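Notebook entry, structure prediction.
Reason for the run: the old model in the group folder had no record of what sequence produced it. Starting over properly, with the input documented here first.
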Amino acid sequence: MTTNPAPSTGPGSWSDESTLPSGSRSGAGLLAGRVALVTGGARGIGSAICERLAREGASVALHYRSSADEAERTLSAIRGHGVAGVAIAGDLSAEGEVDRVLGAATEALGPVTLLVNNAAYTRLLEPAELTMQRWRRFMSTNLDAPFEMMWAAKDGMIAAGGGAIVNISSTAGVTADPRMIGYGASKAALNHLTQTAAVAFADKGIRVNAVAPGLILTERSETVPPELRARMAEGVPMKRGGQPEEIASVVGFLLSDEASYLTGQVVVVAGGR
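New structure, fully documented this time:
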């Protein structure tokens, strides 16, 4: 784990200014002075989110499971924006890891008031390939870990005067695809968790939203055969796949006070699908 000194933040840093328009805040960027934790932040959409939040002035703790080289590159990019950053390895499906990762982020950077649950297990499987073991992995990574992280982080957010959470879902959670039975079910459940948690936490000053990306061109999408990628893009009204930065910009907005009256929403970012 690598750390940098964190900018000075106090428990009142959110509550003192949370009712002000974002343009009234001191510092550069919509998220100046905040501390964010992004799970699955080493590459792809997660890396783009980390960079976006850093550009907006947040100190960023990026969690990763095994992509150490990618995590270091993303961490370097975070610090390149003049903010503090830390990279924390961990398997969030293992017992006790959620608390450890959140504790390490807090120790390094200060109270976490922005949370992005991006870590996910993704596989295209024919129905006959979906075993109970794989089903459980879908659920433990894509649903249980975000639930645990939200519940672990909420008390600190309440103590700080509020916070914002964004869960990264998928269009698989709102459409039916027989190759995504396990993945789609986990993301549909994550959408419902987002909506109900938003209602539960609304009077605590914590907003909870989700972003559901469609076809996004990441390192993972490069493993899909080119002809299949072309067919997938053809099915998008805009006739192209999205870029990770196009998801990151929506996440940055949802975490900022620009979205101060927006909670409980699943925002589909899929080129018109």
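Summary: The chain has eight helices and seven strands.
The old model has been moved to the deprecated folder.
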